[in-house]
Amino acid sequence: MQFLKPYEIGSLNLKNRIVMAPMCMYSSNNEGLVKDFHRVHYGTRAIGGTGLIIQEATAVTPQGRISSNDLGIWENDHIPGLTSIVNLIHEGGAAAGIQLAHAGRKCEAENETTIAPSALSFSTDYRMPEEMTIEQINETIEAFRLAASRADQAGYDLLEIHGAHGYLIHEFLSPLSNQRSDQYGGSLINRTRFLIEIISAIRSVWPEPKPLIVRLSASDYLQNGIDLKQTMEIINLAKASIDGWHISSGGLLNAPIKTYPGYQVGMAETIRHTCQVPVIAVGLINSLEQVEEIIGNGRADLVALGRELLRNPYWPIRHLAPNTPNENLIPEQYLRGWSICPPQN
């Protein structure tokens, strides 16, 4: 099967092509600490055969949280709990990734000041953000750098920068949310500057052998917003320092999006072939046939499953037929499940 083929991203060897997409669980506390739920949640998917697990959006500052229950990586006290997640993922046979994030104007955490590139709210249901000063921009870039250092100390194998779904980096990238007139607004190069400076800051502390990837929304689905062409221009500006691109879409503003299984795969495919970069395809992918088609036809290098892994944490190993055990995928303790007992006399 195509999904069982190993893959190398940067210097990281993955045992198969299945990625667990980062999905917010909102199961921490106001301190952003790891709970037993997180250990069970991620450890189970590792045992289930997933090749790479990317941990949910983990906030680089308290005001970078989406909710008051987001995981955090803004202080050293977070490192021991995060290390425990990494250890469980590794024990389950998977590689451990983490998504570093800042919610920007979509922050709903209590008692936090909301900041954004411009004083434009996501909707009337959200707080009006303050337009970031240059000092705040520099402080946020430094927060990403420190978070990357902590992620390395915790033992993560891969780091993903969250530049999608209407959160802070995406807000800088899109002209619909960025109406600045300084060096961080206006032209596409200026709007990409914040992302590029974050990448540079992270690269100063994130070990070169470990892959660094970016998640982008390839389209805002709105007039005058980011489209696939602009996304490819952004990728071409930043790709020299990035090992792969996780292609999602939407989230900047409420927009009409026609969703269906694999609705974002075409964008990932176009980016892969046009920009000549490794890509992860994601978006309501739920069947073995879809995964095999995407990988087999070279439409993406890796396939990320989200909701499907919530429904079935053992998705990779459940597709292995009885009497065809795969010791590289199935934990030793579970191998008997793939052995058919001989009939009893």
Observed structural traits:
globular, alpha/beta, TIM Barrel, 10 helices, 12 strands, about 350 residues, single chain, 8-stranded parallel β-barrel, two-stranded antiparallel ribbon
Structure, explained:
By secondary structure, this protein is α/β, with parallel strands linked by helices. β4 (52-59), α2 and β5 form a beta-alpha-beta unit. It is built from 10 helices and 12 strands. α2 packs across α3 (134-154). Strands 3-4-5-8-9-10-11-12 form an 8-stranded parallel beta barrel, surrounded by 6 helices. It has helices spanning 36-47, 79-91, 134-154, 168-173, 188-203, 228-238, 265-275, 288-296, 307-311, 315-318; strands spanning 7-9, 12-14, 18-20, 52-59, 95-101, 115-116, 130-131, 158-163, 212-217, 244-248, 279-281, 302-305.
- CATH superfamily (homologous) name: Aldolase class I
Judged by helices, strands and strand pairing, the structural class is: alpha/beta
CATH topology: TIM Barrel
Major sheet attributes: 8 strands, parallel, barrel
Radius of gyration: 20 Å
- The appropriate CATH architecture is Alpha-Beta Barrel
Uncertain ranges: none
Helix count from the secondary structure assignment: 10
Summed up, the domain count is: 1
- The CATH class, by name, is Alpha Beta
What is the element layout, followed by pairings?
Blueprint: E1 7-9, E2 12-14, E3 18-20, H1 36-47, E4 52-59, H2 79-91, E5 95-101, E6 115-116, E7 130-131, H3 134-154, E8 158-163, H4 168-173, H5 188-203, E9 212-217, H6 228-238, E10 244-248, H7 265-275, E11 279-281, H8 288-296, E12 302-305, H9 307-311, H10 315-318
Parallel strand pairs: 3-4, 3-12, 4-5, 5-8, 6-7, 8-9, 9-10, 10-11, 11-12
Antiparallel strand pairs: 1-2
Helix pairs in contact: 1-2, 2-3, 3-5, 5-6, 6-7
